[in-house]
Structures are given as structure tokens and as C-alpha cells.
Amino acid sequence: MRFDTLLIANRGEIALRIMTTARRLGLRTVAVYSDADAEAKHVREADLAVHIGASDSTASYRNIQAIIDACQRSGAQAVHPGYGFLSENAEFARAVVDANLVFVGPSAKVIDLMGNKLQAKLAMEAAGVPTVPGARIKGIDQDIAALAKQVGYPVIFKATAGGGGRGMRIAEDETVVIERYTAARSEAQNSFGSDEIIIERAIEHGRHIEIQVLCDEHGNCIHLGERDCSMQRRFQKVIEEAPSPAVTPALREAMGCVARKACESIGYVGVGTLEFLLDQDGAFYFMEMNTRLQVEHGVTELITGLDLVEQQINVAQGQALAFRQENVTFQGHAIELRVCAEDPYAGFIPQVGRVERWRAPKGVRVDTYLEDGTQITPFYDSMVAKLLVHAANREHAIQKLSLACSKTVLLGVKNNLSFLRHAINHPIFQKGKATTRFLGNEDIDSALWRNTQTFHATVVGAFVLGRVLDGSAGKERKGLSLRPQCLVQMQLSSQMPQEEQLQRVWIRPVETGFQVSLEVKIGDDLAERESHSVNCSFAGAGKVICTVDGIRRELEFVQPDASTVWVQDEVNSWKYTRLAAQVKEDGFVNGLMSVRAPMTGTVISVAVNLGEKVEANQTLLVLESMKMEMPISISLPGIVGEISANQGQQISAGQHLMEITQL
């Protein structure tokens, strides 16, 4: 069972994370890559890399035969699946073993058992593990409304073959139960190839607590404490921490004992996680088991001092655990933030594009594949980095993480860094009271960015773009020479509420030289515009020192082309585009409306037909990008005209999808 060459059947930050440990253990590493990842960092960092197919994950990272062939071609003797893709695919684990290779994970039999939520629930009930009340939906002809009433509202629909928050919907009452059930089935089919659904009672204001387990083939099984993953959006984790502020030592021991008992009952071997819902009364219920390394494994590593990837590799090679339960200790507090390429100010729509600048903060752990020039594509998950901190206590950990967000530079794609920092500084999170319903609440979400300021960034954007108006872009010069007074009209298209998108900035230079003094006015009405005294000077490549009314800040910027500049002011990043004229207004133009894609992705379904009358907010079609489905609708009624989008079609942000005629 010993091996010296490990193939990592994954990409991005987890592939790099596994390589780091494998290299320390003296193992040779093999990467696999799709067309989209030909120049990716994980490909360059590996000892050897094998091309396995087209950009679509089904043709590459989910292509079992291509990965087995890559092992044979590279001489790899073992496969680490990472997380996502094929990591919980029993067929893949079986194929690896059948090819006389070592699978770094549990057996195919256990993956198969725990990979189906219904089977897993029955197995846990047989082992005496408490589970959430619910029922199996046996077929599409079943009376869903009656079943939901029997279970008790609110209910949650879950894809039995699913994970990662996909194929899950909550129905608060009978008015939305059929709609939510249908949506869960659709997403389950598209994500996992199975539309089998179970229904459970939704525990309101619960905590999502997971127990990390580690078992070897010699009968040793321990738990490594809990992680609190209650900070979620659309059932996808956003912030994780260990230990949980809601778990007492006695509760930790009780949950740990249940988790170990569950593992022993199914013969589990390897690293795994049992996920529980903790209600307000302290009762906990099994939800599912993840038979793989978790995205959030790093917070457990930080409080235990253990390398979980190393433990996985050791167990896969037949080694016994080198310690017992009583040897496991927990030190301090750890928190992780998932940095995603998405726009929180536009419904968290996934983003694609080129990373113009990436600078990781110092003094914290950063797991990422980002670097200058990285292309974010629509083919894979939107998570691009993880920021992890460890401190003596929770309060200090939040402070360190908040500062780390401010010191992270990510320009070129919209991201959720500002949202994350606001979230960890919200009083409810700081008090340790956040439940699974905290994020996703419209009032709370909007409060997380309500006080975001853009003034300094707007001034710097105008300062940089002002060179373009003067025709001086690209020229070597020490200062800035503008026309006596110029208007820099800019479209602010990153991380701002829609009604504040257009920025008009008047600039009048007071003097010229290495340090430029400017009079800046922002606003539409000449009489009402506020006037500010501004000093701007370049402070090295991609940096501007901006002093507005005596307040000095150093801001980072990149200018990918003559008309665009990205500016970062602490944790907030903004994209400014110089406009020649005001953008078109929303709504019908000459009786017609062009429905355009809000994001790059794939058309999952077209819900209307040519000539059909549609109501306001009726779903016209459904798009999918980075594993997220988004129904597209308009706010006014009309009649469907030209339909340019087809099911399965790959589309780009802004692309015309269909035409609606005004009623």
C-alpha cells in the first residue's frame, strides 16, 4: 500500500494544498488539467501534469476514465480526490482500486452508503444517531403538499445524491411548497444526475455544527472537535470557525461520541465529517456525512496542530493513528472566510474575468490559486481563496481577520471581501449568536454594505482616467496636466447599489507638478455639487496617495485599458469605466425590451415560447454558472418575441437572450 507518486484529481487551491503536504512527505506529485487550466498554477507547481479533457468538468475533472489513464501514463500509484468533483463518487473510488491504485479516502462501499442522504439517514438511525424528522418522496405523483403538512412546516427539500447546498430548498408554507420542490428537483438533476428528493422539517434558527473524524483500518477512531458552519447563503458555507461559540465541552464530548459511534457502525476509514443541526434547546440531529476532506478543514488544523492531508495519506498507506483521543488538544480559536468571485451587490452573481492584481495579506494562512493574470472561468466553483486566522481567543481572531481582509488586494473581478468583513463585524456574529438563518435575511444582508463609502476611490478613479482625457495615458511624466476644467464621467460597475452607479466628477487643477492639487466636485447639479480639496500623487507602480480634505489614504489601482480602472480602498474594490454618454435606461425602448444575461454561464432551460404573454416577475429562462442556478425575469408584463437562447447553450454576460414586446 506504500506509494511514492500521488495524482491529485482536482484543481485550484485544494490541489495546491495537497501538493504542499505531499512534497513535505517526499512524494512526487501529478496534476491533471482541462483546457481552461492549461496555464494554471497547480499545473506548474506539480512535478508532472497530464491533460485530461475539455474545459467542462464532465469532460475532464469528472471523467473517471481520463483520470485512471492519467495515473497509468504518469506512473502515479495513488489518487487524492480533494473535494468536489469525484471526491464522493463511489464509482470513481471503485475504479481506482480496480486499477490497482490506492484511493486516498474511504471505501467505495462506504461512499455509496453515505453519499445518498436517504440511505445515510437510515444507517444512522440504525446506529442510534438522532436524525431530523422527515420522509422519503417516492415519486412525482406523490401529494407533496400533504406530505409537507404531515412533516410540519417549515420543511426543507434535499437532493439525496447531493451536497454543497445544491438541490436544497426551504418551503415556509403551502403557498410555495410545490414551487420549491420543483426547483430542488431541477437543480438536483442538473447537478447530480438524479432528481430523488427527501423532505425534512426545517429547524429554524439552528446551528450547523460538524464533527471532524479520523479513523484507520486498525479500529482506531477519534474526533477532532467541531466546526461551526452556520454562516451560510443558499445552504453554501461562507464563514467557518472552530471551536463553535455555541458548543460547551460537555456537548462537544456528546457529539464526538455519537460521531465516533456512527463511524464504527459503518466501518469508516479515513478523514470524514458528520454534519449536525443544533437547535436552540441543545438537541442535535444528524444531517449528512461528507466522506472526504472538507473545504474548511484548515480551521481544525489550526486549533489542533494536525495536518489532515498528512493523516489522510498515512491512513491510505495502512498506518495506524499515532495518537489517541486523549492526546487531542484544542488551542485558541480559528476562523475561515471563503473569498468568492461574485457580486454581493447584485444578488451574489458569480463573476468571470482576469485577475489584474492579487496580493495576499501577511500574517495569516491563505489557501488560493490566484496570481496576477489568473483567468476566472464559468466552468468551476466561484471560490478563489480562503483566508484563515488563528488567535488565542475568538475576539482576537475576528480582529485579525478583519485586518487581513483590508490588506488583501484583489482587482479585476468583483468579489465578496467587503461583504465578508462586514459580516464578521456584525454584532450578532461577534456575540456568537449567528444561526443558519442569519445570512440571506434581506435586512441583514443590506445592512452589511449600507455604510460602504466610495469617495476616495471615486477621486482616484477620476484622477487616473483624467490622464486619458488629456491624451497623456501611457506617457512618462511626473505629474498630471489636465484641461482647465474637465468632466470625468464614469460608470461605477462594481460593488455598489444600482441607483448609485453613475459618477460624474469635475476636476480643476490648482497647480501642476509632481504632487497635484485638485479641486474636485462630484454630482450632477453644478450649483449643489460639493467641492473638495484633493492632493493626488503616484506612490509607485499601481498606487496612488490620495488626500481628501486632510484625510490621507494610499489606494491600489490597475488600469487594464485606456477607459477602465480598478481601484481598491481598504477592503472595497471598484471598477470605473469612462463613459462617452450615459448608459441606456432600463425598461422598454420603442416598445421592445432586450433581455440580457446578467452573468456568463449555461442556459439550463427556456420556460417560455414565442408569442407567449408573460407576467411581471415570471421566469423566462434559467441560467447556471459556477454551480449556481438563476431564474431570469423582468419586472413588467409583455409578449415574448425573438428567443435567441437555447437549452445547453453557453452564453456570456450581457448577451441578448430574448426580446419582449410591450403590452
UniProtKB/TrEMBL annotation:
Record-linked Gene3D superfamilies: 2.40.50.100, ATP-grasp fold, B domain (3.30.470.20)
Renumbered to this chain, the signal peptide range is none
Cofactor(s) the protein needs? biotin
Q: Which organism is it from?
A: Advenella kashmirensis (strain DSM 17095 / LMG 22695 / WT001) (Tetrathiobacter kashmirensis)
Q: Which domain of life is it from?
A: Bacteria
Record carries keyword Nucleotide-binding: yes
Q: What is this protein called?
A: Acetyl-CoA carboxylase biotin carboxylase subunit 1
- Can you give the residue ranges of the ATP-grasp domain? 121-317
Q: Name one GO molecular function term.
A: metal ion binding
Which residue intervals define the domain Lipoyl-binding in the entry? 583-661
- Lineage per the UniProt record: Bacteria, Pseudomonadati, Pseudomonadota, Betaproteobacteria, Burkholderiales
Keywords, ordered alphabetically: ATP-binding, Biotin, Ligase, Nucleotide-binding
A Pfam family found in this protein is Biotin_lipoyl
The Biotin carboxylation domain, residue ranges? 2-444
